[in-house]
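[audit] Reproducing an earlier prediction to check determinism. Same input, same settings, fresh worker. If the tokens differ from the archived copy the diff job will pick it up downstream; this log only records the rerun itself.
[audit] input (234 residues):
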Amino acid sequence: PPTELLDLQPLPPTALGEAALVKLYNFKEFNPIQTQTFHELFKTDRNSLICAPSGSGKTTCAEFAIMRMLSTDPQGKCVYVAPKDEMVEEIYDTWKEKFGTILSSEQVVKLNGETSPDLKLLAEAKITICTIRHWDALSRRSRQRKAIQSVTLFIVDQLHFLGGEDGPTMEIVISRMRYIGSQKHQREKKKMLRMIGLSASIANAREVGEWMGVSSKSLFNFSPKVRPTPLEIY
């Protein structure tokens, strides 16, 4: 069954605690989906899967996890991947402007698909944005590439495309990152690589969540009817 959207008191940006983070938002309160997922994303290090209709503000949900990383882990590195170039461009422009106020410009980067320059960008960045295909090519030789192993937060957007042409690449990349995370955990006894999945509402969310290492408590699969802008079908 889909996750019930609870009637919660909307959280204001001041819930983020730090003034520098609060300033990133110029509205009074987070929407119901952001409010309901806030604690899981900003107050824990657990893997999470957020499935909600388009336009529900899932990008802000991902930002909660990034802000947790920035405020709790000085060595933290985030990688965001999406199957479509347009989405990568859009997120890069948004986050470059938003996080550029608290990070230097070299710390929010977009990869171009050229291995050597990309590894250099990744090594110096806090937030790296790229397509699934670029990350697949770069992460294949992860054992020789320290920059890949230093990733602590991995965000996969548009997971509903698992059934599309980019699906096999998405599966490989997510499985590989889970493997890298478990190897790192065994070797260094550090906390696991955190994985956040973002998707439109899907029928088999539990199955996808279990494969990504998401517990039932951290799985949110809201109904397609739960939309900030109501949709009527005739």
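[audit] rerun output stored. Observation attached for the diff report: The two ends are 25 Å apart (CA to CA).
[audit] end
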